[in-house]
Amino acid sequence: MIEDGPFGFKNVNVEGQAEQSDSLLNFVKELAHLRRERIEIGGGLCNVLACGSEHVLAHHYKSEHAPLVLLHNLTDRPQRIDLSLPAGVKSLDDLFGGETPSLNGGRLTMELEPYGLRWLGRRR
Predict the structure, then answer these.
(1) Which of 19, 67, 72, 103 is least surrounded by CB atoms within 10 angstroms?
(2) Structural domains present in the chain
(3) For the segment 31-41, what is each residue's pLDDT rounded down to a tens digit?
């Protein structure tokens, strides 16, 4: 247990994190909830997508339920993404991570903030 300093238990704890909507605790809780809700993960075929940046993991879960595209910037710098959407994907909503990017002619082009992520799919 860390007792002193900026990461000591008096400064960083569940009680304090639970009260902050933008805390790491609430981020992980929301992500875990969404992961359990999206049966495409674990039940669908997963493919890595070329996105124009070697620093971004882009992958697509294809299932009979709905498409799911996940984007993860693994660096401390913004990354430009330009990817072709998988066949049959016409629209995507932001499920986690920020605003819904615009789709144009079967392509998704956007800038992903440092260490940013987007989970895109169809709302239920």
Answers:
(1) 19
(2) 1-37 (no CATH), 43-121 (2.60.40.1180)
(3) 888 888 887 88
